[in-house]
Please model this.
Amino acid sequence: MANWKMTRTDKPSGAEIPARVSDLLRLPGGPVDLNAIATGATPGFIGSGKADGKAAMRHLAPRLADLQEQLYAEGCAEGDTAGRRSLLLVLQGMDTAGKGGTVKHVMGLMNPMGVQYHAFKKPTIEEREHHFLWRVKRRLPPPGIVGVFDRSHYEDVVVVRVHDLVPADRWSCRYGVINRFEEKLGASSAIVKCFLHISKEQQQKRLLTRLDDPTKHWKYDPADIAERAYWDDYQQAYSDALRKCNTEAAPWYVVPADRKWYRNWAITRILTERLEEMALGWPTPRGWNPDEQRARLAAGQ
Ligand code: AMP
Ligand code: MG
Model:
């Protein structure tokens, strides 16, 4: 069990707060028991709830936007020195966990020019004819871009396992395949994998909210009710996937997601912290000089 699960309160004293939310939410090595990780906790957040959470988001937004623009600018630079780096955010979680909300509220802070979103659905006939990573490789973000996967190759060790869609000897080999794939990808892409962790009760509330609000009916899927019967199997499949694919190159973060404002704040922090680690900056001009250009403009050109 990670330390914060035992020691955190909603209002920790200054001494208790590690500087990085990434460190707090990073899944530790060893056995994973999702039932032991609180879904309603707010690790690292100092404040008293939704209003403070929203205010904190407003405070974080400009820094995240700046870093994303620096990554984009690096990707635009020409020549041998052009950046080859990108960032991939992988979002996994049960139905209603907030993958869409994260895209709206966190990715919405970024310039859409530099963001590439893809939702992985049930594989198409064409996708089924290929290796499970085929469709994933086609959607990886190019240099300079922040890619968001709304579901991902992890479905191929989660839903596939829960519903016996392929034999166990096939899906059980996939953890290693995923680790090798992500390690290679990690050479050019920062990979941030977030498991949005909600409780079964919270899911029930969210499904009811969707039913009660006609503007949310488009999000409602009757199949989600049938899936609830498999809740424990999903938690088990997720526990194994998180434990087996929690690598240095591509770590898992378990984000308590019963409180939407905390989920948004925590993922914003994790992304900001990861981009800061990349030591980005504004690219210096290559092949032209600002003073010369200014002089040309001043000379009436
Ligand atoms: P949603 O994200 O609610 O639009 O639903 C997408 C559905 O596609 C979910 O039920 C996923 O479990 C399912 N799905 C995604 N990837 C796979 C996969 N590789 N194999 C089977 N089902 C998948
Ligand atoms: Mg759905």
In short: The longest helix spans residues 50-76. The domain at 21-283 is CATH 3.40.50.300 (Rossmann fold).
